[in-house]
């Protein structure tokens, strides 16, 4: 049987040389943005670049930095600053780094935003018109609700969502520009730190010596712009996140690498909605409306 291919877009920019990031300024108005959900996990949203270029980006909470397709970056006539190594679970590649004057989602705007260039070959298998990947250097500037049921990205200005939603807040742990949370595998003594990642369809665990799955679970090909990797799926008996518990969760187990501080990737599409409060440094899974 031919292995099934799926794309992963979690990205970690590793510095090659000294880089100084510009300060980002943000707008102050609330916005709700309708998004398209592809393959039941990939969030594609409309954005405006430099005030006039309207296009579509993939929203990736697992990406530390925003990325543009090389074609789009050249169209914008961006000036290359230097090169970085872009690392994913399937490989790495050298990419160009630039600054973007302005990026807007709904009525939220960031200026002087760091962007990387990539061919986005795997991303564009989702939809050919995608011009970029919206990463945490934009998203982490705002509080927002990612609602999979209504397919909306809802921003807040002054804790108005926090005052209308309830649920157990889970602390965010930031590492290399990406949000991690602590989760517990039932029966294990130590908690695992997982990247909240809207760019992957399945739970990943990075383990020193992942066990070989001898069951009939299928082999998969994980693909990103940095490479491809043959992997095997498995089932996790139980996982507890805050006040929620999942059982029999599909999981990918791969060997841990020395540079990774996280223990895995947690897909946000496991939840009906996720509320990110970056001012308080917490996230709420499946928040409920206060009545």
Q: What's the CATH H-level homologous superfamily of the largest domain?
A: Acid Proteases
β-sheet strand percentage: over 45%
* Shape estimate: globular
Structural class by helix and strand composition: mainly beta
Work out the helix count: 2
CATH architecture field of the largest domain: Beta Barrel
Strand order of the largest sheet: 17-18-23-19-22-21
Query: CATH first level of the largest domain: which class?
Result: Mainly Beta
Here the CATH topology of the largest domain equals: Cathepsin D, subunit A, domain 1
- The succession of helices and strands, N to C, reads EEEEEEEHEEEEHEEEEEEEEEEEEEEE
Level of helix content?
Answer: under 10%
Distance between the termini: 51 Å
Folded structure, characterized:
The model is unreliable at 1-8 and 10-30 (pLDDT under 50). This protein has helices at 70-75, 136-139, and strands at 4-7, 12-14, 32-34, 36-38, 42-49, 53-59, 66-69, 82-88, 91-105, 108-118, 130-134, 143-147, 152-156, 165-166, 169-171, 173-175, 178-185, 192-197, 203-207, 219-224, 227-241, 244-255, 264-267, 273-277, 282-285, 288-289. The strands form 4 sheets. Strands 17-18-23-19-22-21 form a 6-stranded mixed barrel. It folds into 2 domains: 4-156, Acid Proteases (Cathepsin D, subunit A, domain 1, Beta Barrel), CATH 2.40.70; 165-289, Cathepsin D, subunit A, domain 1, CATH 2.40.70. It is globular. By secondary structure, it is mainly beta. It contains 2 helices and 26 strands.
Keywords:
single chain; 291 residues; mainly beta; Cathepsin D, subunit A, domain 1; 2 domains; 6-stranded mixed beta barrel; 6-stranded mixed barrel; 2 helices; 53% strand
């Amino acid at each position: 049987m031919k292995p099934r291919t799926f794309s992963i877009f979690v990205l970690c920019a590793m510095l090659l040389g000294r880089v100084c990031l510009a300060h980002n300024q943000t707008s102050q108005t609330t916005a709700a943005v309708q998004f398209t959900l592809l393959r039941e996990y990939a969030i594609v949203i409309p954005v405006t670049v430099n005030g006039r270029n309207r296009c579509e980006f993939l929203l990736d909470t697992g990406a530390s930095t925003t990325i543009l397709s090389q074609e789009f970056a050249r169209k914008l006539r961006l000036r290359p600053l230097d090169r970085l190594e872009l690392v994913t679970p399937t490989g790495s590649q050298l990419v160009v780094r630039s600054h973007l004057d302005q990026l807007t989602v709904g009525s939220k705007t960031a200026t002087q935003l760091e962007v990387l260039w990539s061919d986005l070959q795997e991303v564009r298998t989702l939809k050919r018109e995608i011009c970029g990947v919206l990463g945490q250097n934009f998203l982490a500037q705002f509080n927002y609700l990612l609602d999979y049921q209504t397919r909306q990205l809802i921003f807040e200005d002054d804790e108005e969502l926090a005052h209308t939603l309830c649920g157990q807040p889970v602390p965010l742990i930031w590492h290399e520009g990406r949000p991690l949370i602590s989760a517990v595998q039932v029966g294990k003594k130590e908690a695992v730190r997982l990247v909240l990642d809207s760019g992957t369809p399945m739970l990943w665990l990075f383990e020193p010596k992942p066990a070989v799955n001898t069951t009939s679970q299928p082999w998969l090909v994980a693909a990103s712009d940095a490479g491809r990797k043959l992997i095997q799926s498995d089932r996790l008996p139980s996982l507890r996140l805050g006040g929620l518990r999942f059982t029999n969760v599909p999981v990918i187990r791969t060997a841990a690498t020395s540079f990774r501080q996280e223990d895995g990737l947690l897909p946000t599409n496991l939840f009906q909605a996720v509320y990110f409060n970056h001012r308080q440094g917490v996230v709420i899974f499946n928040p409920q409306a206060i009545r």
